[in-house]
Amino acid sequence: MKRVYLFVPLIGFLVMAGLFFLTIDREDKDVLPSPLIGQLFPEFDMVALETGEPIQRADLLGKPALVNVWATWCPTCKAEHAFLNQLAAEQGIRIIGINYKDEDDKAKQWLASYGNPYQGNISDPDGKLGLELGVYGAPETFLIDSAGVIRGKHVGDLNAKVWKQLQPQFESLQ
Amino acid sequence: MKQIYGRFLLLCASLLLSAAASAVVEGYKYQFDSETDVQRFNTLAEELRCPKCQNQNLADSNSPVASDMREKVYELMQGGQSDDQIVDYLVARYGDFVHYKPPVRKDTWLLWFGPVIVFLLGLLVLRQLRRSQGSRKLAPLTEEEQQQLERLKAAQPNHTDPKA
């Protein structure tokens, strides 16, 4: 018998171990890649949280923006809220909110008590717009350019560390 | 009184009839026109994966996003969309992840055919092993060995077959 065959299981093991090792740190398993990156933000016909006025995709265009999906039932949203306030106030970042599967009254109260970093909020009580965007939890944040093309997505809270990674991309948006 | 009784019966009957063509997923009821549609819905809910709770399908998960997605599947079905169109709709928003059956593509090639390749390799190794074992024939004894054997036999004259 050829001795070489004795090494087949070992080689198999090493190949598998190598593959696992390469992917071990590559991505958080809870973060799904969005197929919407590079595509136009979906058309929608919703109502603004603050005013009750109709709001459409056209209202998002003109300047790059962060589109932040949040809700009062979401503890992580509370954790990131102070950072959003800071982004809006200190860096003048344009943030549009989607109040996802929430109650309008609770949401307004939240903004009144914790501050409002949003240029405007879309009320999405049934998660309809969320579904169009492939949202599966909160918070999620989309980076859109001035033409309304989705350029990036972050799942989880925005904080100084995350922003350090996103900022160069956001600043390069036209 | 009789009229109320009659109405009650009618209500019971209609409830029974409607139960025949509705799918129950996680306590939510979806009404369909036919049993085939119920089957379709149940199959879709089992084949689609909840993006939030990653090892459950839409039928098993009670997370809010799974219920929204079930609702959407129902809505699209009622709108006359085919199973493929419905799956495509969700894949376009949530990615390949939502379908338990990934598409056959360049980057999923290993996933689809890897096991077959490993199996075939295993067969090949097994065949080589058997072949090399089969070919290991005993070499005939040399003259010297033959003589040695004779000597050993002669040294034990009392050795007999145990049966005898």
Describe this structure in words.
The complex is a heterodimer of chains A (174) and B (164). In chain A, helix 3 links the parallel strand 4 and strand 5. Chain A has a seven-stranded mixed beta sheet with strand order 2-1-5-4-3-6-7. Chain A is elongated. Chain A has helices at 8-23, 75-91, 104-114, 128-132, 160-172; strands spanning 45-48, 54-56, 65-70, 95-100, 120-124, 140-144, 150-155. Chain A has one domain: Glutaredoxin. By secondary structure, chain A is of the alpha/beta class. Chain B is mainly alpha-helical and 164 residues long. In chain B, strands 1-2 form a two-stranded antiparallel sheet. Chain B is elongated and about 115 Å long. Chain B starts with a helix and ends in a 9-residue tail after the last helix. The mean pLDDT of chain B is 82. At the A-B interface, helix 4 of A face helix 3, helix 4 and helix 5 of B.
Q: What would you call the shape of chain A? A: elongated
β content of chain B, as a range? Answer: under 5%
Give me the CATH fold name of the largest domain in chain B. Answer: Helicase, Ruva Protein, domain 3
CATH-derived topology of chain A: Glutaredoxin
Order of strands across the main sheet of chain A:
2-1-5-4-3-6-7
CATH class of the largest domain in chain B: Mainly Alpha
- Which CATH first-tier class of chain A would you pick? Alpha Beta
Work out the number of β strands of chain A: 7
* Residue share in helix of chain A: 25-40%
Mean pLDDT of chain A: 92
What structural category characterises the helix and strand content of chain B? mainly alpha
Computed Rg of chain A: 21 Å
Distance between the termini of chain B: 105 Å
| Extended strand count of chain B | 2
CATH architecture annotation name of chain A: 3-Layer(aba) Sandwich
Order of helices and strands of chain B: HEEHHHHH
Strand order of the largest sheet of chain B: 1-2
